[in-house]
Amino acid sequence: MKKGCLISSVLMFAVLSAGIIYYFYQNHKKDPVIYEYVKPEKGDIEIKAVTTGSIKPRKEVNIKPQVSGVIDRLFVEAGDQVTKGQNIARIKLVPSQVNINNAQSGVELAKLRYQDATRELERQRTVSSGNLDITQAQSRYENAQQDEQRQKALFEDGVISEQEYQQAQLSLQLEKNSFDNAKLSSGNTLQQFTTEVDIRKQEMNAAINNLQLLREGATQNSSQVNNIIKSTVAGMVLEVPVEEGTSVIERNNFNEGTTVASVADMSTLIFEGTVDESDVGKIKQGMPLVLTVGALNETSFNGILEFISPKGNLEEGSVKFMIRAAIKDDYDDAFLRAGYSANADIILDKKTDLLVVNERDVIYRNDSTFIELVTGDQEFSEKEIQIGISDGIIVEVVGGIDSNDEIKLRSDPNNN
Asked: Among 30, 46, 334, 413, which residue is least crowded by beta carbons within 10 Å?
């Protein structure tokens, strides 16, 4: 009885072991590898340098005020088309009381000076109209003539010396010169005082205009109203960073001033981006590039590289060089907005109608390249080939095979 149980246990163990062995054998059994193969094809290869950047208008101007104050009214908003000289905003002036007081004092002082100059001019006109200065000079000259005649008679009679007579002649000559000068200077003096009145009047008007400018932002005789901000260029309003009630500062030598609006010509756009230092030596001005704008469903535009910065900047551990390209396509159908991000493919080299194979099917060993050719049913042999340019996906075959050869597809690029 015990012997029969032992035999049954041994047989059961043997069957169970055989089942386990068969199970693991089936699970570890590999199917034979079946390699596929293709023929080389004709194709085009483009070698590109990829850069990222954004779309910008070529000409963008920040509009700033000429006076400080508070925005009283805005006449435009972002997206509006404006012409040169069109009103952008109006400023309500908030002048300093100290400046107002100084300007008022300047006006009062200028008025006093003008009044003094006017009174002096009237006095000179009275003197000139009566010829008082000429009459006095003429009277002195005539008295000198009479005195000279008396002195001459006395000299001839031997009453006085020759020296005394010469003194009388000298006095006569001096009075004659004074009389002549009085006649000449009479008109000149009047003209001088007239000029002085004109100068004082201009000073007074300038002081009045300065006071009015501080109070109202404009002058009566000015064709330009300084508290009205006007566009200096024609284009589209990209941004209005202020609102009504916002305080603004005028532009001057010490302050850039507050930007009231940004206006740009959206008919001429450019692409600005950066290129890594490893690629900058491969590019040059005039190269074509293809721009892809993600916001427009990957719409592409053609461009021409027109600027490469001579100086690089360190960004995130690598040196980048700024580039600029002109967008050449007609983009009226697709509205390009300033600030769109874009990718640019700078075409370094391009060849067409080449014999190409997939780069992953090429075996690189030392300084040589090989391909596995089909020699039979799932039989292959390596053959050395010569390659040309590559874009990282396909590579040009220069020699070693032709379009009729069949090459092995390598599913694992590391499998030789």
From this structure: 30
